[in-house]
Amino acid sequence: MTCFTVQVPLARSETYITELLEDICNSMNDYALHVDPDTKGKSYKRFAPRNDKSDFPDFKDFQFDGPEGSNSLKFACESIVEEYEDDIISLFAQETDDVADKLCNVISDHCKGRTYQHQEL
């Protein structure tokens, strides 16, 4: 009997991706609703710097409480991760291009045809 070992890079292993997903929604606490002062358009933006070298944004345009606060964003994240966990793991385990776009438009249809632009993924 011949036994083959397949080595998978850590970042593409199911175990590693599953562990990341268990904690990913906690990072939603670093985001808050941002209201553009010119257009009054609303979007969630990161207000917490990723490292000590980053500048803090102007907090006056952020809303940290209310029904659209980070708790609702965290809840939405947890719901999406729970519903699409297998698909998310599969996308990241493969060397797939445009993971965010595929998850957002093809698998979940949460973006309803909009182009997904997210530089953090």
Share of residues in helices:
25-40%
Please count the helical segments: 3
The largest pleated sheet is described as: 3 strands, antiparallel
Strands, count: 3
Category from helices, strands and their pairing: alpha+beta
Kindly, what is the distance between the CA atoms of the first and last residues, rounded to a whole number of angstroms? 42 Å
Q: Which runs of at least 5 residues are low in confidence (pLDDT < 50)? A: none
Beta-strand fraction estimate: 5-15%
Gyration radius from CA atoms, angstroms: 18 Å
SSE ordering: HEEEHH
Order of strands in the sheet with most strands: 2-1-3
Based on CA inertia axes, which overall geometry fits?
elongated
User: What is the mean pLDDT?
Assistant: 78
Describe what you observe in this structure:
The mean pLDDT is 78. The chain contains 3 helices and 3 strands. It has 121 residues and is an alpha+beta fold. Helix 1 (14-24) packs antiparallel against helix 2 (70-93) and helix 2 (70-93) crosses helix 3. It has helices at 14-24, 70-93, 99-107, and strands at residues 31-35, 42-46, 62-63.
Quick overview of this protein structure:
Helix content is about 35%, strand content about 10%. It has helices at about 15-25, 70-95, 100-105; strands at about 30-35, 40-45, 60-65.
Topology of helices and strands:
Elements: H1 14-24, E1 31-35, E2 42-46, E3 62-63, H2 70-93, H3 99-107
Antiparallel strand pairs: 1-2, 1-3
Helix pairs in contact: 1-2, 2-3
What are the defining features of this structure?
3 strands, 3-stranded antiparallel beta sheet, 121 residues, 10% strand, alpha+beta, single chain, 3 helices, elongated
